[in-house]
Amino acid sequence: MAQGTRTRLVQLIHPDEGRRAGLIEDNELHLLATYRSIYDFALAAIETGWKLRDLLSSDLSGIVLDYGEVHSLKTAWRFLPAFDHPSEPGRCLVSALESEAGKAVWRYQGSGECLRGHGEPLAISNPSGLFAEIAAAYVIGESGVPRRLGLTGGIRGPRQCAVGPELTTDAEFDRLEGSADLFRQSDQVWSHELCSGTVPFASVLADVEARHFETAHLRRRGDTHLHFFGEKLFGPTSFPDMASGDEADIQLGGLGRPLRAMAAASVPVTPSAVAVPL
């Protein structure tokens, strides 16, 4: 259950308007004015000392969209990942906390280039390669201090990961509840309840962050991180075998509208060049 004031953010792209960031209020999507990414708003908040929610609420462009229509992909707007590094995807580290032989291990998933937004195709390299997740978004501030921006739902695959549609900030959770669902030709063919159990959510976050940011090279100023830790909360929740065209959904209470990703057949990559010794 979520407590306190929640700030709900999205990142969008339009064929004519380009990239934009938006603030969600009920069923309205308010486009923001000064910056085109949540990352740049976060840096501005760090530099000015403003609370992020105050900076955002003072920077509305006056353009308001119907969020229901945008979320259902009925307009020309499309979703970007809920958080990323807008100009240097290589400076977005995507990682996951997994269990191996009863121990928690840290897995590198890729750079920001592996991220996809709500409604985008998600490449699958094997039929059972997707996991229901939750991710925390971070930016590294002055003096290498990690700053947690918020939480977002995720669907994690071995090659690509979907996050969003919303990044939720300012929320405190006793626990998280929701569901992961699989649709085939618009029919629901599988559903699984997600629940974080009895461990206090704040304790889980503190443990995850202490492990993740333990080494100095993961605290480089200006870098961003998306860290999946749903397995620590939900266990290894994998979607059943999927085929191209199947749709995976995840919805978590307090984290806004559901994230949906359509499974797409993974195309084998042929190296364009072979490394040779100098």
Description:
This protein is mainly β. The chain folds into 2 domains: 2-78, no CATH class; 81-265, Fumarylacetoacetate hydrolase, domain 2. 14% of the residues lie in helices and 43% in strands. The protein contains 5 helices and 20 strands. It has a 7-stranded mixed β-sheet. Strands 2, 3, 4, 5, 6 and 14 form a 6-stranded antiparallel β-sheet that branches. A 5-stranded mixed β-sheet has the order 10-20-19-16-17, with no helix packed on it. The chain is globular. The chain starts with a strand and ends in a 13-residue tail after the last strand. The model has no long low-confidence stretch (mean pLDDT 90).
Please supply descriptive tags for the structure shown above.
single chain; globular; seven-stranded mixed sheet; 278 residues; 5 helices; Fumarylacetoacetate hydrolase, domain 2; mainly beta; 2 domains
